[in-house]
């Protein structure tokens, strides 16, 4: 039986251990062994993974915004034997960082902030070094000087109570920098929690209200939000992991991650969405709905360069992913050929990423006839 990849864990399992934005390298694309070459074969492959208990989730492939493959597999709830549906909401991990980035770009477009503003221009309470050296751009690029906060004593002692941006700021403001800002990139949920506070300060709104009003609602993402995990939200997939410390065998995806994550998602990740909502988000970027063309291009350049710099659509698809114990999300954006690939799973990484990458490679090798999914 195929087992999920083990994620490093504290008692709280790093709520949102996740992959940052990445591109498929030429070497990866050439060496990858693709287990299918048609959509029918993809369906058979996904069914086989489900039968061997290696995958549970939803797969969507679209071209020019029109779904050409959309299937659900496995169970949203094992306790109640509820199957995943096409509209099941999954924890998307770090894909929430995309929404936070768009919000910052919106505020920049409105003149509420600048990408090269220092942190101290917008927020108080940080060390003088951080306030004067860290910029908004550094935070967006994960070059802020901070890594993650999983080993922070306050986080370890209070993770199960953290529900607001301020809850995180109470201890993040006290964290010293780990390296000189701007000198390298290091995965940093810390940076995106701080960006959430910047959004609140610049907009005058609660972070979650701002994202809902200015990102989700304008593009019709009606099944996306940072729901309280112990609240009344409907149609959420339960998350199953082989990394639960209480699980004596660590296989079979029998245990949930209910007591391994904070109670609510954050600006850095952990919210919920559906495959169709993520397709809507992708289309909103391609069509400059949430941002004007200049800010959209800067977003796709990962905030390198300046507004107005020329942007050539990349030859290779953009691959974005999120994951932690019991959840894995993948969003593939092929700007050149118009494809969108979304794979959401309520099992451990890297299963959604593996399926998503294989689909992108299939589309490159054998472009299918465009036909609307049933």
- Count structural domains: 2
Order the strands across the largest sheet as they lie in space: 1-10-11-12-2-3
CATH class of the largest domain: Alpha Beta
Distance between the termini: 31 Å
Q: How helix-rich are the residues, as a percent range?
A: 25-40%
What does the largest sheet look like? Answer: 6 strands, antiparallel
- The total beta strand count reads 12
Q: What's the helix-strand series?
A: EHHEEEEEHHHHHHHEEEHHEEEH
Radius of gyration: 20 Å
CATH superfamily placement of the largest domain: DD-peptidase/beta-lactamase superfamily
Estimate what percentage of residues fall within beta strands: 5-15%
Q: Counting H and I runs of at least 4 residues, what is the number of helices?
A: 12
State the CATH topology of the largest domain: Beta-lactamase
CATH second-level architecture of the largest domain = 3-Layer(aba) Sandwich
* Low-pLDDT residue intervals, each spanning 5 or more residues: 1-31
What class, by secondary structure content? alpha+beta
Q: Mean pLDDT, rounded to whole units?
A: 91
What coarse outline follows from CA principal-axis ratios?
A: globular
